[in-house]
Amino acid sequence: MRICNLACFVNFVMVCFAAVCCLLLPATLAQGAAIYHITELKLPAGMTVSEAYAINAAGQVVGAVANPSMHRRAAVRWTNGKAEVLGMLPPLSWGDFNFSVAYGINTQGDVVGASGNFQPVVMSGLIGATAFLYRHGELEALGKDSESFMALGINDSTQIVGAHAYRGFLWADGKLIVLDPLSTRAGGNGCWAKSINAHGQIAGATTVNQEKAVDLPVHACLWQADTTRPVQDLGTLPDHPNSFATQINAGGDVVGYTSKEAIPRLAKEKLNSSTHACYWKDGKIIALSPLTPGQSSKANALNNGNIIVGQSGNHAVRWLEQKIADLNTLIDDSAHWTLDDATGINDGGQIIGQGMHDGKLRAYLLSPIIDW
User: Fold this and answer.
1) Same-domain check for residues 5 and 62
2) What's the rounded Cα separation, in Å, for the pair 53 and 64?
3) How far apart (Å, rounded) are the C-alpha atoms in residues 255 and 301?
4) Mean pLDDT in residue range 143-150
5) Which end of the chain has fewer CB within 10 Å, C or N?
6) Is 71 helix (H, G, I), strand (E, B) or coil?
7) Going edge to edge, which strands form the sheet with 82-87?
8) Do 11 and 135 share a domain, yes or no?
9) What is the pLDDT at residue 262?
10) Using an 8 Å Cβ cutoff, are 287 and 278 in contact?
11) Segment 253-309, tens digit of pLDDT
């Protein structure tokens, strides 16, 4: 009898606890709707468009703000919702305009990116851009090169990676280390370093050898902290000759995408019809399902909990335990947002990206309503 009464009492307490929890949750969440609060990353005066590319553990976001009608585009860092324009390096000696974009940020708030006119360099296939590091309130160039020299990622040891003409690079202790591709033929080789983790592992892409190929295939790859060790080919999905890695986390897991066509290498570039999001764990490639079968997709970023964000079609998405969700269905409909792409996520679960807000292109920050 006492056991029965105790069981009934426990059940009663659990039911009451569940009811209280539902009352404490926001109404939209209790109804199974919004699980993220959305914040627009505000524009500085004179700017009309914003883009977000990276977020750190503290929720600082970097990207660019622009006014296309005035040919203005500037690197920016948002801290607690406040935008700080980071400025630009001195103009190049050729070209009409000068721009800057921030692509990476570390825990300390140090920022990397590129500054220049971003116009084609004659007969080279490159663009006018110089890599920069922003820290302690100052913007400094990483050397004097101005041809497709772009800093894309940074870790807490201030190791920086990116692209230097047709090669990836690692910048460490004030020195530039050029990374080698896997392909070995006389010409047409190249590689690209996109992300670096706390252990110094670098993810990106490299051309690979293929007999009689006019243009060599590009494969996602991994350089170890000891860059003298051979680069590791991460491979690609069947019938997809190309792949690209976009980010690596502290555990060495990598995300990116594969393609039958040429590979877009920056998050802002549009997908082609054959692009497919993927995830590499323990050196094995895993295809990530799109929202609709056959739809183009890409994975842009992941955190140390292996929550992945990216794009499927023209929708910002999240993969949780490899199950996809449209982020538009996880925010309050009354916010008047259409989320097009998700470009970053931190370990607190905050997500950044771009979308349309009341008909205008804006950068956003999603913050979890509850701690999952």
Assistant:
1) no
2) 8
3) 6
4) 81
5) N
6) coil
7) 49-55, 61-67, 72-79, 82-87
8) no
9) 65
10) yes
11) 999 999 987 665 544 455 667 899 999 999 899 999 999 999 999 999 999 999 999
Query: How many distinct structural domains can be found in the chain?
Result: 2
Query: Taking the chain, what is the end-to-end CA distance rounded to the nearest angstrom?
Result: 39
> Based on the domain organization, do 22 and 82 belong to the same domain?
no
Q: How is the beta sheet containing 111-116 ordered, strand by strand?
A: 99-105, 111-116, 130-135, 138-141
Query: In terms of Cα–Cα distance, which of 58, 79, 106 is closest to 350?
Result: 58
Please tell me the distance from the alpha carbon of residue 197 to that of residue 156, in angstroms, as a whole number: 9
Angstrom distance (rounded) from CA 255 to CA 220: 9
The token pair that represents 263 in the structure block: 């590979």
Asked if 119 and 199 sit in the same domain, the reply is: yes
What one-letter code names the amino acid at 288? L
Residue with tokens 């990622």: 153
Residues 218-252: pLDDT tens digits?
999 999 988 778 899 999 999 999 999 999 999 99
Report pLDDT digits (tens) over 86-100: 999 887 654 556 899
CB 307 within 8 A of CB 345: yes
Give one DSSP letter per residue of 269-292, joined into a string: SPPPTT-EEEEEETTEEEEPP-SS
Q: Which domain holds residue 1?
A: 1-32
Assigned token pair, 131 = 């890599």
Alpha-carbon distance of 98 to 129, in angstroms, equals 9
Phi, psi of 15 (to 5 degrees): -65, -45
* HEC string for 294-315: CCCEEEEEECCCCCEEEEECCE
Query: C-alpha 118: how far from its chain's center?
Result: 20
DSSP state of 120: B
Q: Do strands 49-55 and 138-141 pair parallel, antiparallel, or not at all (unpaired)? A: unpaired
Closest CA to 254 of 201, 208, 313: 201
Amino acid at site 242: N
Q: Which residues pair with 147 in a beta bridge?
A: 128
